[in-house]
Amino acid sequence: MQKRKGISPVIATVIIVAVTIAVAIAVAFWMTGIIGLFTGAVEKIEFVSLYAQPAKKDTTEGWNLTIILRNVGTTTTSFDTCFINGVPDAQWNATLPTGQQYVALIKPKLPVTLPPGNSTTIYIFLVKNGRIGTTTLSPGVSIEVKFHTTGGREYPKLTTLP
Question: Which fold has domain 45-160?
Answer without folding.
Answer: Immunoglobulin-like (2.60.40)
